[in-house]
Amino acid sequence: MESLILKIIYGLSILASIIIRRPHENRNKVNKIVDNQKTALEKTLLLLVFIGMMILPMIYVFTGVLDFANYTLPLALQFLGVLFMTLFVWLFYRSHKDLGQNWSVSLEIRDEHTLVSSGVYSKIRHPMYTAIWFWVIGQSLLLHNYIAGLSGIVAFWLMYLLRVGPEEKMMENTFGEQYKNYKSKTGRLLPKF
Ligand code: SAH
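A: This is the predicted complex of the input protein with S-adenosyl-L-homocysteine.
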């Protein structure tokens, strides 16, 4: 496919993610935060992810400064990239819908926090992170550039590694046995068989 088409598909996915998240950001402002684990490390990781998944891709799409690091991929892998992006949009939407007012961009417990174990959360504990994995893999298949294509995987991998353990610990501290029980029935990123 034309690299312009691939860039447009990537741009549309970013747009979809902003549209999906917007109403949750607005609504959740009123649900008071009672436990905030937004550390300096957490803020740095959020910034890194923003650079890797949005800023570098934008620089690649709108300027030619990263063109020295371009690569090409066979058509089949490009289609796989489109498939990953489609899965991303679907699962990102579903997980926001199911998590509802409990959603936060970082590790936080809200005033009326409930443990969600229905919808996509009935099979997977971190469907939103699964969705973001789909995004960053899709990114590497759509943006044919060693910097802008791979920066998402590197940034999110780091964030995932440093976040998912503390997040589960926080949930366990808040919900105790209920979370342990939920944990035993679900997979982290993919359904447990
Ligand atoms: N890790 C989850 C949620 C990401 S949003 C996912 O990938 O789908 C991060 C916030 O979600 C955290 O601050 C935590 O408070 C909240 N959270 C995570 N799992 C939850 C669950 N099962 N029920 C309610 N809130 C949850």
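Residues 16 and 78 are 20 Å apart (CA to CA). The chain has a mean pLDDT of 92.
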